[in-house]
What does this fold into?
Amino acid sequence: MSGTIRTAVVALAAGDKVRPCSPATKRCDFWAWGEGNLRPACCTAHLLELTGFVHELLERRGIVHWLDYGTLLGAVREGELIPWDEDVDFGILATDVAAVRELKPEIEAAGHRLDDSWYPHVLRIQLSRANTIHVDLFVWEERDGLLMHRADSTWDWPGMQDRVAFSPAHLQPTEEVVLAGRPYPAPSPPHEFLRLHRYGDGYLTPRRATVTTRLHFDIDSSQATPLVEKLLAEVARREQLLLRAIRAGSLLTRMRLWDSDSDVAAVWTALPLEPGDDYLERELASLSPSDRSETALELGRALAWLQQGIDEYERPHRGTGTRRMGRRLNRLARAGRRKGATTLASLLA
It folds into this structure.
């Protein structure tokens, strides 16, 4: 056993956090490290380095680009990356996609990696082949006088507003915002853009959503009532409790989570295929008839789902392991029918 592996095993056995953070290591899954789980300084440094590289490269080639989504929000709100963001987002125009692809040799010569096949209408520039911390370039196409992005609704963050279209006037011209002491282009005016086309009236109030992609919710700003905000916060809290319960499990489980970006797959496997009726009834009983909107019911179902997963990990009994294996096989079969080998590989990681 090598010294590096031995150190990792000892740290994992002791319950310590192993936090790899260099271009030669895998991306650290800081979002699953438990309470706090903020991005470590090394990840921030890599993200800012990559952001500066991408900006300079696109600017040098005359390619229109702008900060967007959570990166723009962090720059406007605090002048920094949001502490729990795992990537950086730029927007580009569809007419410039070919020009970006032509930059692949220059990107790779700098030690980075251009991935233009992982998701339609998004180009991804990774720190390296090993470390997949990244900058995403969202592609916007002009149609009927608007810039539009063919986004999958599962990417929606709770409270997002009108995320699929905006007027080109916001880019004519762009406006500078400061991120980590450095100016970057942004839609103009940035506050209006964030309010009208991204996060609604509450955009200046920090709110951390869930980290497991299967627990993201398609909730726009008009649905973000005080009750919905409260339920969302409880979903995020229970998700962390489930991650903690998983990480308190066997040494083998902790080694798998350290060695790969498999925390999402681990949580997904820990959840029942559907929440049990008793769990569902218990969560929904706390909602008055007037509170039972479609959004509140969806969040209540998520809470029941998570609580059952937590209970099964904290109070396991005979047959629990078999049921988890059955769930994994069931989800692998569904993934195979839906998305093919790529999804299968990610779930098996």
